[in-house]
Write a structure and sequence with these properties.
The radius of gyration is 20 Å and the shape is globular. Strand 8 and strand 9 form a beta hairpin. Helix 1 packs parallel to helix 3. The longest helix is centred in the middle third of the chain and has 26 residues. It is built from 5 helices and 11 strands; from the N terminus they run H-E-E-E-E-H-E-E-H-E-H-E-E-H-E-E. It is α+β, with helices and mostly antiparallel strands and 229 residues long.
């Protein structure tokens, strides 16, 4: 029977790496990066157990200013290792901290017919949670976005969304003259659209001069609906 090590290597080479490159990452083996002039925006595959019977791994993401990395003369590597804390990061997290379950998340590959399920789940986690957050952090670091409401300030509006059986707002951002709302919504859900239209009307009624429109995006950062000017 094919060993867990061999299946893991095959999964990384033939499935995960091509999927990451399709998302815009460059790299090889266990380290990948999003192209950016000012920051190292990295994704790393960290191995825990790795033998013939079991491979256990997770995903780490981090953002490090290139200027800080270049100025540290003790660093000999071209770029930071996303699986090691350097102290120069402006942001770093394990992907489990971005997933709804929270906490550490480790995938396992064992010999058998369902070994690829872990790799497919990893691709989905990066696409829907890791990549959007890494992009958001890049935008914030470049000054393109501004925080608006903290999670505790969204409690009331999210309670109203739940009463209407609509997924809550995960985060908000100000980009230009638009307030962007992010959540687990689908363009094929007319109920979500109408309920969010009401939420957008509430945000616009506040009269905050920093934005004149409200846009809704899914957790992958894809535009869904826009309300207002």
């Amino acid at each position: 029977m094919t060993t867990a090590r061999t299946l893991f290597a095959e999964g990384m080479r033939d499935h995960l790496a091509p999927a990451l490159r399709a998302m815009g990452f460059t790299g090889w083996r266990h380290t990948f990066a999003l192209p950016d002039e000012e920051h190292w925006a990295l994704l790393g595959i960290e191995l825990g157990v790795a033998d013939d019977h079991l491979v256990r791994y997770t995903v780490n993401l981090g953002l490090t200013p290139k200027s800080a990395w270049a100025a540290d003369r003790s660093r000999r590597a071209l770029r930071p290792n996303p699986n090691a804390v350097t102290g120069l990061e402006s942001w770093r997290t394990g992907i489990g901290g971005l997933l709804p379950v929270g906490g550490d998340v480790w995938w396992q590959i064992t010999p058998g017919p369902r070994w690829a399920v872990a790799v497919q789940d990893t691709v989905s986690a990066v696409r829907h949670y890791g990549l959007p957050e890494l992009l958001r952090r890049l935008e914030t670091a470049s000054g393109a976005t501004e925080g608006y409401l903290a999670p505790e300030e969204l409690v009331d509006v999210n309670a109203a969304l739940r009463l209407a059986d609509v997924a809550p707002i995960r985060r908000t951002e100000l980009t230009g003259r638009t307030l962007r709302l992010y959540g687990d919504w689908s363009p094929a859900d007319p109920v979500a659209r109408e309920v969010l239209r009401g939420a957008a009307t509430g945000f616009l009624s506040v009269g905050d001069t920093r934005f004149a429109a409200v846009g809704c995006r899914d957790t992958a950062g894809r535009d869904l609906w826009s309300f207002g000017a």
